[in-house]
Structure formats: structure tokens, C-alpha cells
Amino acid sequence: MTRAGLLGFPNVGKTTLFNALTGLEAFTAPHPYTTTEPNVGTVKVPDSRLERLAVLENSRRITHAGLELVDLPAVRSGSIRGLGAGREPDLLLAVVRAHDSGAVPVDEHGTDPVVQAEDLLVEVAMSDFEMFERRNERLLKEAAADPSLRPVAGAIARAAEQLGEGTPLRQPAWSDIELRAFRDMAPLSLLPCAWVVNVSEDDADHNMLVGQVRQAVPATDPVLAVSALIEEEVAGLEASQRAEVYEGLGLGEGATARVVRTVYDALGLVTFYTVNRRDARAWTVPAGTGAREAAGRIHSDMERGFIRAEVATISGVIACGGWAKARSSGAVRVEGRDYRVRDGDVMMVRFSV
Ligand SMILES: Nc1nc2c(ncn2[C@@H]2O[C@H](COP(=O)(O)OP(=O)(O)OP(=O)(O)O)[C@@H](O)[C@H]2O)c(=O)[nH]1
Ligand SMILES: [Mg+2]
User: Model's pTM, two decimal places?
Assistant: First the structure.
């Protein structure tokens, strides 16, 4: 499952956002460093088309796609914790606060999201820098004796220099060889990063704040505004009430859908579907995944014995009133193993083992 890590300074509302997105009830409090061990949960990816497909096909079960969310302990100056081996996220969700209710203490990073974004970029770069500096010192000696190590040593040295200036590694495009030299260190600043501005409940001027943060972070990083407190309250409601409240508050589809879409876009993920009487299910794969490989997600036998896939768009299937009708009206095509799965495809895999 794709994993996103919530990162930020104390009291910005990371755990509140975690609760809003996962529906869990991890402890939040108006004092710094409340979260001491990571909270881990799953975000159920909202998907009304999947729900409609399940109804049309009389599926007994609906399996939504999931996104794993890790709420990390707050960043302290000089230390980023909670990212133990095997727990590295695929993407960072950096949370900065704009809310300033008076009830929630403010620390040296303040409530200006731009200042926090700048400080957080430096903290992340510095934590990578220390690691790259140590590696750099060692490689300098080793490369003196073994010239074959020089390209790697050069890449590490350039990366260390850049990090020392506070610039994240995701900024320039590194070659594959260089990236391979970095990989075992799993540098945080190389990860895709999306920014969440936690705005106050009564703040109308989100666009200005979002624009300011966008200016302060790498151009490739998406930025969105969320009121974590409102979203946490709404998460506790029934699904039908939720839609009403969102509409009443002018919050559109709500934070979960927006955050998930941002994560999928940043990582280049697409969703495809399978459906039968037992289960209507959403699957997530990187864009460009071939049909045979995608079938392997469902079952290894389907990949091994792949013959062909019948494919239709989920909106087409819904418009036709179900798979059988889609097929009889010619909306279902036959695709081979190398067909690249597109977002919104419904796939029926034909295989033999
Ligand atoms: N007014 C207001 N308060 C908020 C908002 N988001 C969070 N809070 C409050 O701020 C306090 C801190 O929120 P947490 O979610 O615990 O913050 P955190 O970033 O997880 O904090 P640490 O675990 O200490 O790093 C809690 O009392 C929240 O209820 C918000 O959007 N508006
Ligand atoms: Mg917390």
C-alpha cells in the first residue's frame, strides 16, 4: 500500500488531520510533542463510481483502495523521528499551521505558514545533510584508493553541498546512477512532498495563503488548504450527513478526496477496477503499468496465465447499466498483455493456468 508520512512542527494539527483522514481517534492536545510514537492508519479512498458499480453488479462486498498514513512525532530542531527502517514513506505530507485560536500554544516557528514551510525545508535538508556528510567523508578516502568509486563519491559530494545550502534533493533531476548512490540512505528531501496548510475555521482567505506557501516551496510541490479541526468533526458523521455538511460549509468534496487526489497525482498513480458478484474492488498501480502486470496485483496466477483483458471505462459501464450491457453494446474492448492500464478502467482478466 502507498504510504504517506505526516511531517511538521508541534501543534500544527498533524494528528487532527490524521484522525480526519483515517476516522481514527488518536490523541490530540493543545501542547507540543503530544505524539511520541507514530500513529498508523488507513485512509479509505472515497470512490462513488466504485459504489455505483457494486450496486449495478450486485456485488456483496466493496473494497475501496487504501492509502497508509503515518502521523509522525513533531520535528524537533535537529531531529526527525519515527521513520524507522521499513517505514519510509513514499511521500511526505508536510503540515503547516495558519490557525491561531489562542488556545493552542505557538512556538518559535509561529503561525505564519510560509515561515514554517521555510523552516521545515531546512530541517529536512539538514537531516539529510548530516547523513550525506558522513558518507562523503568516508567515500573521499575510499575513492582515493579505488578510482571506480569516484563517480559515486562525486554525486554524494554534490548532493551534500546542495543540502548544506538547505535545498532539497528533489529539486534538480539526478541521473539514475546518482539516484542509485543515494538510495540506501533513503533521503527524506528526495521524496515527493505535498503541503497542507491547516487553516482556521473562520479563515476565508485560503487562496492567498496557499499562493504564498507555493512561492516558498519547490515548484513541483503541490499545496492545499484544509481545516483539520472541521474535517475531524465531520469525519465522525454518517456518510449521508457528511455530504450535507460539506455542501453547507462550501467545502466541496471534503479533505479526504482532495488529499488522496494530490497524493495520487504526485506519485503518478492510477486506479483500475474489478467486479463480480463477490466483490467490487479498486486497485492502485503506477501509471503506465501493463495489463498483465496489473493482473498480477489481483492474483499471481492471472499474471502467469494471462491471455487477454476485457476493458471498459467505469463511467461507460455505469452509463450502460452494468458490465453485461456494456459488452453487448460494444463498450468493452479486448486488450493484450502490454496494454497500459488507464485511470478508471474496469478489467476482466482472461487467464489459464
Ligand atoms: N482552532 C484550531 N485548532 C486546531 C486545528 N487543528 C488542530 N487544532 C488543535 O491544536 C491542538 C494540537 O493539535 P494536534 O493535532 O495534536 O497537533 P500535532 O501537530 O499532532 O501536535 P504534536 O503531536 O504535538 O506534534 C489540538 O488541541 C487541536 O484540537 C485547527 O484547524 N483549528
Ligand atoms: Mg500529534
Answer: 0.94
Which amino acid does the sequence have at 140?
Answer: L
Q: Rounded distance, CA 343 to CA 314, Å?
A: 9
Residue 85: pLDDT band with limits 50, 70, 90: low
Least confident of 36-40, 248-252, 253-257, 330-334: 248-252
CATH (residue range 1-46+65-267): 3.40.50.300
**Pocket, ligand 1, Cβ cutoff 6 A:** 8, 10-16, 28-30, 32-35, 74, 99, 101, 104, 198, 200-201, 227-229
Count of Cβ atoms closer than 10 Å to residue 332 Cβ:
20
> Which residues are close to ligand 2, an ion, with C-beta < 5 A?
14-15, 34-35
Q: Which ligand is nearest to the CA of 34?
A: 1
Per-residue model confidence as pLDDT tens digits over 110-120: 999 999 999 99
What whole-number distance in Å separates Cα of residue 292 and Cα of residue 294? Answer: 5
8-25 pLDDT, tens digit per residue, is 999 999 999 999 999 999
Pairing of β 193-198 and β 61-63: unpaired
Beta-ladder partners of 40 = 70
Whether residue 83 has pLDDT greater than 80: no
The fold for domain 288-351 equals Ubiquitin-like (UB roll) (3.10.20)
pLDDT of residue 204: 63
The answer to whether residues 97 and 12 touch, using CB atoms and an 8 Å cutoff, is yes
Which residues contact residue 282 at a Cβ distance below 8 angstroms, ignoring those fewer than 6 apart?
Answer: 45, 47, 50, 63, 64, 65, 271, 272, 273
Cα of 347 vs centre of ligand 1, distance in Å, is: 42
Amino acid at 257: A
Kindly report the protein residue whose alpha carbon is nearest to atom 12 of ligand 1.
Answer: 11
Q: Strand locations in 223-353, DSSP E?
A: 223-226, 269-275, 279-286, 306-313, 333-335, 345-351
Domain boundaries, the chain: 1-46+65-267, 288-351
